[in-house]
Each structure stands twice: as C-alpha cells, then as structure tokens.
Amino acid sequence: MLAATLTFLVAPGAAHAAATPTGPANPTAHSLPRPTGPHAVGVTTLHLTDPARRDMWQPSRDRELMVSLWYPARSRVGQPAAYLTPQAAALVLRALGAPDVPPAALSTVRTHARTEAPPLPHAMPLVVLSPGFSLPRGTLTSLAVELASRGYAVAGIDHNFEALGITFPDGTTTECLACARLEQAAEEGTTAELGAAASRNRAADISFVLDRLTGATPAWRGARLIDADRVAVVGHSLGGASAVPAMLADRRVAAGGDMGGTVDVPAPGLDRPFLLLGTERHRPGQPDGSWDRTWAALTGAKHWLTVAGAGHNTFTDHPVIAEQLGLPLPEDQTLSAARSTQMTRAAVTAFVDRYLRGRPGRLLDDPARRYPEMSVWR
Q1: pLDDT digits over 259-303, tens only?
Q2: Which of 127, 158, 279, 286 is at a distance of 20 to 30 A from 316, taking alpha carbons?
Q3: Pick from 212, 165, 42, 175: which is nearest to 113 by CA?
Q4: How would you class 33 by CB atoms within 10 Å of its CB: exposed for 0-12, middle for 13-18, buried for 19 or more?
Q5: Which of 281, 304, 323, 302 is CA-nearest to residue 105?
Q6: Band of residue 12 on the pLDDT scale cut at 50, 70, 90
Q7: Separation in Å, CA 140 to CA 32, 95, 192, 259, 279
Q8: For residues 128 and 234, is the Cβ–Cβ distance under 8 A?
Q9: What pLDDT, in 10s, does the model give residues 144-156?
C-alpha cells in the first residue's frame, strides 16, 4: 500500500527524472482550476501539538501537525494564499525530477483562497482531508477550495515526517523520515505491518484535529461555525486507507472516502457511509482484491466508482501542476489534468452533499451521464 503511493513523487521513475520544463518558469502563470461554488474561500494555517502522544517516526518528540483550514468567506479580502512554502516546494520539485525549476513556480501557484478572510457566519459541515504518503497537504488544495466554495470547512492535515516537506511557523522544514522506514520495511518484508501502523497513527491525528476544531478549546477563532455533527474524512492513497481506522475509532466521523488507497475493513465491518473512488485497477475482480473484500465488509451506505484513464495521482493536484510546469502527466494517466480535477471534485462533492447535507448527490448513482469515463459498481 505504501509503496504504491511513492510511484511519482518519492520514486518518480525515468520519465520524470529526465523531465525538464518546456520553457522558463513563470510563477504568475500557474493556477489551480477556479472553484465552482458560490462562495469566496478563506484559509488559515494551524500548528497543533499533541502533548499526550509521542511521534511514531521520532519518539523523542511530541506529535506535531500542520493544518490548513479552508472555509467559505464573506468576501475576497486578504492576501492570496500560498500553495506550498518555498522550502517544501523545493523538496517536491527535487522528487519530481525537476530541481532546476525555481521553488516559486510551486509556492506561488494561485489557489483561489485568501489568507484570514472573514468566514461566512453560517454553520459549516467539516471535511477532513488526508494526503497520500509522502505528499504534503497542499496537493489536495484544488479539492479543498472547491468544497469550501460550496459551504464546507475543510481541514487538510500534514502528518509530520510523512511528507516530502512540511514547514512549521519557526521556519523549520521537516522531511520524510517515514520514507526511509518504508525502504527498510520493504527489505524486511514488513511493509504491510508498517502500513497498518501508519494508518492507525493518522487516525489518531484525525481525532486530535477534531478535538482542536470542535472541542472545548478550539484552535480556530471561527470554530463555533463548524457543525460537529456533520463530519467526513476523505483521503488519497494512505490518507484514504486511514479513513477506515479513523471512523472505527471515532464515532464523530459520519462518513468516509478513499481515493485510490488500499483499504482494509476488519470484522464486524463499518456501518457508516463510505466512498471508494479509484482507477481501472480498482474494478471488481482485479488481482489485488482489497476493494472486493472492503465492499463486502461495508455494511452502511456505500459507493464504488472507478475512472477510466485515471492514475494513482489523478485525484490530487499533481496532473494540473505537472502540466503547467511542462512535466509529463503521471505515466499511468491518460485523462487531461482539467478532466481529472472535474471528476474528483464532482464525485467527492456528491458524496459529502448526500451524507452531510441530505442532498441527492445523483452523480453517485449515474455518473456516466455526465462523465462517460466514470463507472459505478454495485
């Protein structure tokens, strides 16, 4: 499970290692797709420390997280929000095989969110986003701003020492200690055990973030607007796999979703709504078999969608960023970057609309009418 998430960023392969931009990087030319909801989007950044828990990857330290909280805003005031810090951007570009691209090409990507814009004074369902292993939280920004533009609060978590680069308020940037542990586990044949432990660790991160956003001492001044009874957790790859232990450990999570992760639902199963969104290799009857087993173990409302032409990183910002930097699309993806973003946003929005807001979410039942590339399995 963990090894699959490294395909493009930690181990980009020959195609990416040799790739260079097609022309001079112009930071002002890069932009994520504009969100389609009716609201302006604000964002704030939270540095959270859990004094009750030691870090799995560095036990001498308390567990620390960086969280971006996107939300519907009253107006488009405030400074444009950065996509990544320059330090994290440099590490991501190095992993992409494009070290000569200036970090500003990523750090100044237009996100369509404004820093500290005043929030709309309305109740907000909460969607927690957990990125894939080695990926910083910024790689789910396009999905986050879309949901925020439609009235959701969205918390994107950077799980410390699991991303290529995470910058903290004091300027320190931590790197991926877990990546070295993965290499060691692969040599020892203990990758599955490490993946399960990492999923449980992320589940604890998610519960802690919920405590700090909906508990008695909230970390955000607008936290009173978050509806603690309407919470979903959606993730990419390892982040999606972590949605299951998060739901099993924390009844506050009303619904969960996995975008391309290998999931495992233990007996007696999971009784709340769950979304499986994947590639052609996640169709029923594929050799991996994990989604077939998961489907049987889901006892609540459940949805299984696959996208023809999608690759492992289709459900992130990677295709959009790669295309704008003149880098190849992920090698297992034939969809355009724009189409990738449209379908990811549409599927996740339909799911959380149905189960957090009681709206129809018709795309879940008949996606092919709008997106012929998308299949639904029952």
Answers
A1: 999 998 998 899 999 999 999 999 999 887 899 999 999 999 999
A2: 286
A3: 42
A4: middle
A5: 323
A6: very low
A7: 11, 18, 25, 11, 18
A8: yes
A9: 999 999 999 999 9
